[in-house]
Predict the 3D structure of the following.
Amino acid sequence: MDTFKQGFKAFQQSSSGYAAYIGDQYVESVQTEIDKLTDNINKFQNSKVGVDQLKGNIFEWWHSGTANINGAAGGDKNRFYVPDSKEFASPDIIDSNGNRWSGKNYYNGAASSKEQAESLFERYMKYVSKNPETSFEDFLQERGINFKDVLKHDPIYAGQGRLIPKDQMEEAIVFLKEKIAKVAVTRPELLEKYLDTLEHLTDRIKTGKGTESIPITELESRLITVAGKQGSFDPEEFGLTLNNIIEANNIISQSLKAGLTTATISVILKIAPDLIEIFNQLLSDGYINPDSLYKFGADAFNGATEGFIKGSIAHGLTSACLAGQLGASLMNIDPMIIGAFTIITYNVFKNTMKLTNKAITRNEFIDYCMRDVMLISFSTSFGFAFQSIIVPFPGFAYLLGSFVGSIIASYLYDNLKNIFLSYSIKSGFTFFGLVEQNYTLPDEILKEIGVAIVEPITIEPITIEPITIEPITIEPITIEPIKINTYFLRRGVIGVNKIGYLVT
């Protein structure tokens, strides 16, 4: 039963290792978005469309892709998409919250902002030059717009963000302000389309949670387009690496979230035995001992605290390593190793404090450390292994695997330890101080053979007075035969990693 309890205790502690898996998935989600952007740009390889025209499409994919990359790094679940639709006034980029953007990437700021401010009637005039028989009302109806719901000079992209290259923002703002000042006097019916465009003009797409795309210049969009046409777009050449994207504040934020998750798991596992004990006490005695409730609360607090600390550290270390923040050599480290290392290090620190305060002995400290290394290593490795088997439920899979690994390791450790100590008993070997060989006879044997066990006492100095000795007569005495008891001693375990004499 003690073996099972030790295994379950290791399982409780190893639950925090799940944070390492969360960290691995976090970094992988960022890398996945980088790979998606790379594929979406390189899919234009060998395109027959010229750079001047194709750069508009690349511009849209760049902004939606980099926004998704930054969103994954910041833990934002919102995602951006390029509908690639040819419908009238359709947005070039949309997000999962329903926000829309129109992207224009022309040769300068005036041209790009002018296209963003285009009205329904202006588009109609371009169309009617080739289709003179079509009325404005028919033009709108063909595009699913009710003639009565709009004004003639309403902007086509009303309600959408107006996205342009970052180096064109200043020129575009000047152009729009000049137009506003002019039409306010000459043609006030055109005022709204310029005001609306100026209000929604931007060089990046973004959400209220702080997620935004990476703005680029018109020249940069050309370079990216050329690379895409050649199928050679490399995200690293444009700064899209894990090391650049995942910043310290991202790691801290995500680590705290992972810490809360593992704290919750740790509390549940920590208080489960207490709940069973309280329930059994209620059934048998008809009441609950207040001491049980106190222990319940203390265990919940300790479980939450330890789970949060170990989970946060495990996630932070995993994210930092895999993102390259701690050097390229650690980018391929197994998250399982980080999870086990974090928990073992935490336990060693805790046991060191107990040893320093003399709450445990040196032998107990060594035993705890060896047990932790084996049990927690098995627990975390089984947890990660089960995740690859039970893919749809990673959290449950980790906990199940961790439980199985902990119990197996606990029984293995106890059996190996018994073999280890058995050899030490027969050979007298200390394994470089890991086993203490005690050759002192037990107190009960010493008492039986007439050896007095004297407790240390303090002797006060006394003054001896001279005395007179009178002669005495010694009478002969008869010595009765005495019975000698025989005891058999054997070597055995008398403490944690301590071997001494036992009475058979």
Summary: The chain has a mean pLDDT of 85. The first helix runs from residue 2 to 14. DSSP finds 16 helices and eight strands in the chain.
